[in-house]
Amino acid sequence: xxxxxxVVELLCDFVGGELAIEQCRELELHLCQCQKCLVxxxxxxxxxxxxxxxxxxxxxxxxxxxxRALCEEKRKDV
Length: 78
Ligand SMILES: [Zn+2]
What we know:
The protein is an all-alpha fold and 78 residues long. The chain is built from 4 helices and no strands. α1 packs across α2 and α2 (21-33) crosses α3 (35-54). The longest helix has 20 residues, at 35-54. The mean pLDDT is 88. Residues 4, 7, 30, 34, 36-37 line the site of zinc ion (ZN).
């Protein structure tokens, strides 16, 4: 039986369908018994689905500029 920490570590591969069947089963078994992880996985999936929908639309130029400025600011901090 895998623990909650392992669920988080495997989640990316699990959602991407890159997990071995055995690991998939272990993870699903954990999700059946752990409400906390189930909600976490659902939220993760939903986020991916939503970001896929957004991909079709270009970023508003003002937002893109803001992001770029923010990135440059962060780079200066390092
Ligand atoms: Zn858990």
